[in-house]
Amino acid sequence: MREEQIEKLRGVVRDCVSKHLYSSAIFFADKVAAFTDDPADIYMQAQALFLGRHYRRAYHLLNASKIVLRDLRFRYLAAKCLEELREWDQCLLMLGDAKVDEHGNVYDTKDCNVMYLDKDSEDREINISSAICFLRGRAYEALENRALARHWYKAAIKADPLCYEALECLTENHMLTFEEETSLLSSLQFGPEDRWLSSFYSCLIKKYDKECVIEAKFREVEKESTNSNPSSPSFMHTLKNNTDLLACKAEYFNQCGEYQKCFELTSDLLEKDPFHLKCTLVHLAAAVELGNSNELYLMASNLVKDYPQKTLSWFAVGCYYYCIKKHDQSRRYFSKATSLDGTFAPAWIGFGNAYAAQEEGDQAMSAYRTAARLFPGCHLPTLYIGMEYMRTHSYKLAEQFFMQAKTICPSDPLVYNELGVVAYNMKEYNKAVLWFEKTLKHIPSLSQMWEPTVVNLAHAYRKLKIYHEAISCYERALALSTRSLSTYAGLAYTYHLQDNFTAAITYYHKALWLKPDDQFCTEMLSLALVDEGRRGIDPKIEFR
User: Fold this and answer.
1) Do the beta carbons of residue 378 and residue 173 sit within 8 Å?
2) Distances (CA, A) of 507 to 410, 458, 459, 486, 493
3) Which residues are listed as membrane-spanning (predicted)?
4) Beta bridge partner(s), residue 371
């Protein structure tokens, strides 16, 4: 066969691959390889086999070639075949010996004399060394060696910042703390034309900075623009409405406790891109917090129909049952989600929460401890372990875990709130005031959800006999919610302690209007009436 005929067949193979006609690609690639000894043709045939899901045959073809250990392309494709076959030890063996330190620096590699025969295309492809590091990370993660997997993922993105998969594994699986993520990003070498990517990556990592810092990061990314038609400003394109960036914003709102704002943003996003799975996860979390069971039912039904093999689908079903308080069913589906993907952090946390909702502390603690071990960069498992200890009145242990959660995530107001509750229960009221005030400082905008924190702060001030501050906090709480028994009762009792019996009686009545059989308010109202009767009505008392 003449050279021009062989070249034509090569073109046919490439065309078949581009049109996803893999059987045709395999057929013609096999014929090309029969007429030539060119390693590129063997590689093309193996690639066609790989794309056609003939992994064992592709691996055999590559392994039989003499060049497999001398060309990184061959070695990498052979390792990819072994990855698909789930033969992880053989995959690592094929990739060769190399070591990596905790910062992602590769050393002691045995690949110094290995060729890479496709250098011409390196400028427009992910660095092959980065891809190999990433595959090593995948293999070690599959073998449950998460420490080495973390190091190799770091090595992958340091070798080539365009290897987004490595960053995604590190962030989505909570392998790094906020400080480690920040340090890793600062060590990446971006090209002059990729500066925008550095800004974008800074929005993808944990959002534990101060509010002004995080919002500045979002603004910086939104400023990135390109003009497809320089003669017309109307053709200016920016990342402001990019779905990935907006999903990051929604995640930030969810983290800050602004669940309604988060839900509205994710709802808009899912109308444009209903299959954006990262946005879907944040949408589910916000819906659970808002108690929107109808939305959870619809989302779960659609996910199970469209993605029956995905962990997220069964997690959504678990969220629905958790929301309607059918905790046995929710546990079943959270358990199914963890069995499909043991590295899916939300499923482990949901599993623990479902047990905790029924006060099954041992099982809840087991789930939280597993999550804490698997996801060292996530503070929620540690926070929930502390909550379980607090529920059993082990306040010292609870405080230790809350402080650990604070170290991991110093910006979560819920952590400070729980520290305040622990201090209050241990009768350390000055410390409780400090923690509750810090809680309120970390909340971007005060909403009804944080009304109990304001009430707790008022209780702590009352215990310290700083009554004017306590009254101010109670009134602040009433501005957030007018149907809180504890707020009216606390305000009434504070006025009672100040001998302002008329105001106390007014608020005891308001509390009893909400709950007529409340024993404390009933007894204290009787005492206030007696006290007022003994003293008589003081004309100087201001009626409120």
Assistant:
1) no
2) 38, 15, 16, 11, 9
3) none
4) none
**8 A C-beta contact, residue 494 and residue 481:** no
Token pair listed for 386 = 């502390």
* Chain centroid, CA 297 distance in Å: 22
> What is d(CA 542, CA 531) in angstroms, rounded to the nearest whole number?
17
Residue 533: both structure tokens together: 């009767």
Between CA 250 and CA 229 the distance in angstroms is 32
Return all residues near 404 (Cβ < 8 A) that are at least 6 apart. Answer: 382, 386
Predicted local confidence at residue 234, as pLDDT: 46
CB atoms within 10 A of CB 468: 10
**pLDDT at residue 544 above 60?**
no
Alpha helix stretches (DSSP H) within 191-276: 195-204, 211-223, 243-256, 259-272
One-letter amino acid of 192: P
Burial class for 404, CB neighbours closer than 10 Å (0-12, 13-18, 19+)? middle
Under the banding of pLDDT at 50, 70 and 90, the label for residue 114 is low
Cα–Cα dist 79/98, whole Å = 15
Look at residue 71 and give its three-state secondary structure: strand
The residue with tokens 């070695």 is: 75
**Cβ(44)–Cβ(29) under 8 Å?**
yes
pTM here? 0.84
CA-wise closest residue to 367 among 357, 377, 292: 357
Which residue has 């007894």 as its token pair? 523
Tell me, what's the pLDDT at 125?
60
Express each pLDDT in 423-468 by its tens digit: 999 999 999 999 999 999 888 778 888 899 999 999 999 999 999 9
As a whole number of angstroms, the distance between CA 460 and CA 431 comes to 9
Largest CA distance in the chain: 118
CA 147 to each of CA 154, 181, 374, 428, 487: distance values in angstroms, whole numbers, following the listed order: 11, 15, 10, 40, 49
| 3-state SS record for 359-425 | CCHHHHHHHHHHHHHHCCCCCHHHHHHHHHHHHCCCHHHHHHHHHHHHHHCCCCHHHHHHHHHHHHH
- The burial of 224, by beta-carbon neighbours within 10 Å (0-12 exposed, 13-18 middle, 19 or more buried), is given as middle
